UniProtKB/TrEMBL annotation:
GO terms for molecular function: hydroxypyruvate isomerase activity. The lineage of its organism: Eukaryota, Metazoa, Ecdysozoa, Arthropoda, Hexapoda. GO terms for biological process: glyoxylate metabolic process. It comes from the Eukaryota. It comes from Leptidea sinapis. Belongs to the hyi family. It catalyses: 3-hydroxypyruvate = 2-hydroxy-3-oxopropanoate. Keywords: Isomerase. Its EC number is 5.3.1.22. The active site is at E141 (proton donor/acceptor), E239 (proton donor/acceptor). Catalyzes the reversible isomerization between hydroxypyruvate and 2-hydroxy-3-oxopropanoate (also termed tartronate semialdehyde). It is an enzyme of class 5 (isomerase). Residues 22-255 form the Xylose isomerase-like TIM barrel domain. This is Putative hydroxypyruvate isomerase.
Amino acid sequence: MKFCANLSFMFTEGATVLERYALAKDAGFKAVETGFPLGFSIDQVKKAKENAGVEQVLINLKTGDLAKGELGVTAVPGKENEFKENLKTTIDYAKALGVRKVHIMSGKVDHVTPENWEVFEKNLNYAANELKKYELLGVIEPINQHTVPKYFLSDYGKAVEIIKRIGCENLKLQLDIFHLQHIIGDLSYNIKELMPYVGHVQIAQVPSRNEPDVLGEINYEYILKHLESSGYKDWVALEYKPAGNTKEGLKWITKYGYTL
């Protein structure tokens, strides 16, 4: 099992994503994932990553300002050209940073219609084919409605149906165990059932979204082993908010028998 740091959640003591690369390295991480580094050029981000000496596993599709709730336009009719432009920009960053995975966020929708699903699938089909040109993997993530109300994609069944219909090896599921527990639970069964479609995994405790070993609904000592036995061998991203000091909170890794 190998762990990477989510820079948006884990190192809030860093004012910018550029500073957080170094903080992740200082904490012992060999790899990171990030949201789209809005406001920073490719050269700035590449320099920060290289100076820290870490691998970058995943980047979010350019979505706008996350602090303002701008979570993408993939499922928004009339925004197809904006989606394509955002995808092109993200691919440019991904290539420069050596990223292998792109998280394609769906966006928020007030009132879901069949047209939203049609546009979502059309855009994902386009993205999968574009990403394939650069040997990049696109991943889509169901996000629960408690944490992000009105987020369009919050159904694992529909996510898998779309992945199967598009039928491209460059489009898979981003399985965040935090959201899986909120949306459908029954983790042992659903992890095994979803695993053939999984391209990336994230973890956090429920409901606090803190470290995996804090008091909560999920027994991560078991779940991490279950992920391995179900066939997952890739990076597990720590997308949690530290309950206290980030580095002190990492003690759970050795407690569970792992290393960074």
